[in-house]
Amino acid sequence: MSNSINIAVGGFQHETNTFAPHKAPLSEFLKADGWPGLTEGAELFEVMNGLNIPIAGFIEAAQHNQIELHPILWCSAEPSSYVAEEAFEAIADKFCASLRAAQNLDGVYLDLHGAMVTEHFEDGEGELLRRVRAIVGSDMPVMVSLDLHANVTEEMVAHATAITVFRTYPHLDMAETGARAYQLMDAAFKGAKLVGGMRKVPFLFPLTAQCTDLEPCRSIYQAVSQVEQNTTSRLYAEFACGFPPADILECGATILAYGSNQLEVDSILDDLLAQVIEAESLFDINLLTPDQAVQQAMKNTVNKPVVLADAQDNSGAGATSDTTGLLEALIRNQAQSAVLGLMHDPEVARLAHQTGAGNEFQASLGAKSGLAGVLPINSRFKVDALADGNFQFTGGMYKDSPAELGPMALLRVVDDNSDVRVIVGSERMQCLDLAIFRHLGVEPTEQKILVVKSSVHFRADFDPIAAQTLVVAAPGAHPCELAKLSYKNLRSGIRLEPMGAEH
Questions:
Q1: Which of 36, 115, 257, 258 has its CA 20 to 30 A from that of 22?
Q2: Are residues 244 and 298 in the same domain?
Q3: Quick one: 306 and 270 in the same domain?
Q4: Residue 448, pLDDT score
Q5: Domain that holds residue 38
Q6: Residue 499 domain flag
């Protein structure tokens, strides 16, 4: 292929939990946390090099084929409630201005999440894509990669030439998904005329039922990936499980397919939809109470930790990561050799650094976000260790990505009956990597109980060392029991939980 091909690349990521208490202002997109802060121009190539991020996979595939790339910008913010109008407009304006300035473009690639809701648009990605199309016209290939939790909309599909979606949760294939988007771009440049379609799944299911290591998602994604292997013509399929804590019209799971023949595309869509509906009762939404989980963990006799997932206080799904329900249960049930991570409390982290390692102080830990019914832990704490929050992730999902979590502390609850420690941080970050514990000198394999504020992503790094993994419904702003939520904007007829699923 000639190196005269020129593709604009960029990304704008946010996963919006409309039930969460805090919105995402512009400052959240500017700063680095577990992912890089807002990055513009040629710096994109350096910052993204080697990372498991979709745009990194696209860039690597394109550069391998000697494609000229026009870097625009890339940014993300930790999931939260609505993206502030000011933030969306500032980033979208900057993005579109750079796109207009690009010369002799042949295509556009966008690394998006697919579940962005702003203060003024239910469908943030659809609106951004509409603006991109207005600049580049209707004929230019515009390829998009989306997160597995995307709430794919009609407008996204209308404005994208084709869409690729992560096929693993935990998301181990993010860069691979970006590379797959390049393959579709390459096919378009070589004359392939893609037609597409979508099917909406008629029920919602929470993140805890979306893990691709478990059934039914394991089999569904195997079927999705086999579409291009089992057909003689060029056919592609994708499945987005949706992000259910988003009270919008098009919330929910979606099946996508692309090919050269509309009848074949429709047949693939119908077959995959039938498989999802047939598996409806297998989407497990059964969760333990905090006391049940802690008591079950304490019975473990295997020389490995039991991992408790504080699934509803997962900042990676927009929660505050400062609720105390599981921590209270550990203390109440006199748990031994238990460590919880990652509690977001910048105030207590600062006090711990002022107090110094080895010393004790009195504090109210957690519950700074003001969620109803959530109270802080008022106790004395011993400062076991301090750290600056700067380290590299080591797990398969974020491997080699730099973390910038601000001052951190390992605190021991001063209590004669329990042995409970808490890792406290200054930035919200889903606890999905063993490096978070090791940064504070805690060896996870030597603990009896590990509590992680995560829904599923932790499994990639923690399941291999665990005697058992238990998913817990403690208080939090990422509600997993969807039937209890007060949705107002969902489309008519969609079910709030799978029929026949375990409770």
A1: 36
A2: no
A3: no
A4: 98
A5: 6-282
A6: no
Closest CA to 204 of 240, 150, 241: 241
Specify whether 76 is located in the same domain as 211.
Answer: yes
Going by C-alpha positions, the residue among 178, 193, 52, 50 that lies closest to residue 109 is: 178
Whole-model pTM? 0.96
Number of structural domains in the chain = 2
Do residues 299 and 237 both lie within one domain? Answer: no
Helices 85-101 and 124-136: angle between axes, nearest 10 degrees? 20
Burial 480-503 (b: 16+ CB within 10 A, else e): bebeebebeebeeebbebbeebee
Bridge partners of 450, per DSSP, are 307, 339
Cα(103)–Cα(90) distance, rounded to whole angstroms?
22
> Tens digits of per-residue pLDDT, 398-449?
998 999 999 999 999 999 999 999 999 999 999 999 999 999 999 999 999 9
Residue by residue, DSSP assigns 151-219 as: ---HHHHHH-SEEEE---SS---HHHHHHHHHHHHHHHHTT---EEEEEE-SB---GGG--TTSTTHHH
Q: What is the pLDDT of residues 294-351, one digit of tens each?
A: 999 999 999 999 999 999 999 999 999 999 999 999 999 999 999 999 999 999 999 9
Distance CA 467, CA 415 (A): 26
Please state, for a pLDDT cut of 90, what percent of the chain lies above it: 93
Q: Is the residue at 491 inside a domain?
A: no
Asked if residue 60 and residue 193 are part of one domain, the reply reads: yes
